[in-house]
Fold:
Amino acid sequence: MLEYVHTKDCRSRFINQYFGDASAQNCGTCDVCLQRKKTPLTPAEFDAISKHIQRQLQQPKMLSELLDAMHGTPKDKAKEVLHFLQAEAIVSGDESGKLKWK
Structure:
């Protein structure tokens, strides 16, 4: 059980191999496979997404509205940039829960 928890390999393949399926392939959907698919945020992407967020927040928006307006930007990357901007107090929420650029 501990090997399963600590494996750096596909969890589905791990289980299949445990039960004797030596031909098991990576599933592409477990947490390990998804983490491998995730590409890191580059400085250029950060700048582009930050500028896009700034343009979108000319008028306060709810998070869902902002993410919907970020066409072509992966939501996980937009959330990562937004989290940074909030930690730096560049973006904040108002009393209605809408996000605004300072």
The chain has six helices and two strands.
